[in-house]
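Researcher: Next entry in the queue.
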Amino acid sequence: MTYETLLVEQIEGVVEVTLNRPEKYNALTAQVAREIMDVCKKVGRDASMRAILLTGAGRGFCAGQDLEEVDDRAGDHSFRSHLLKTYNPMAMAMRALEKPIVVAVNGAAAGAGFGLALAGDIRYASEHAKFVPAFIGIGLVPDTGVSYWLPRLIGAGRAAEVLFSNERINAQQAAEMGLVNKVFPADSFLDEARSLAQKLASGPTLGIGLTKRILNHSLGVSFAEQIDYEAYLQDVTGHSADYQEGVTAFLEKRAPEFKGM
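Model: Structure for this entry, 261 residues:
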């Protein structure tokens, strides 16, 4: 896959996606959003692509909106229209993809870049990573799903404090509050993220994908509705080849060889 703003390489079952605008700290544009959506679409359709690893080139992960693309000081720009066409469908595509997305945050994740990191499933951070809401700093509200995921990850009160004060969160603070899963030294963190992505890609990706669907579903339903949905999807996975292989491997005391079906 060849793109203008991304480097994309498939390594075995993992599609490694690198935001490739290092001179702009990988700031987001409509083109970046379209290309990320296209990657999600292609990964969703290709059984050989079993996981995504998303990171940034250079010193930053993603600096948020490229302000040179959107300059509204004249007051004639529709922010809503821009979001509905770009970052909202990008974040939705990442959440709807029923394959795991590991986000390797190598540097600053700011504004919409913060939202991009939160749209993944698991976040590993370099010791140099930092998270910057940025929105209130220029008089805006959070977007790209930040207001949805942040309180669910760190709690409503803490989220309010972070967003109101435009607080910068370093890697260790992010781990302590549950914003990232793990922090690693800068020289090894990408290898750790790749190792995790490869582990997930070699796992029962049908079950992982449907677990992602269950987790998404749980965010807006009652307990009774959720356990009914669990039962429905358990019936799907219980009739899968991966389930048969998992049970057989367990009984034969060997490592399973999952196919994602």
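Model: The radius of gyration is 19 Å.
Researcher: Noted, moving on.
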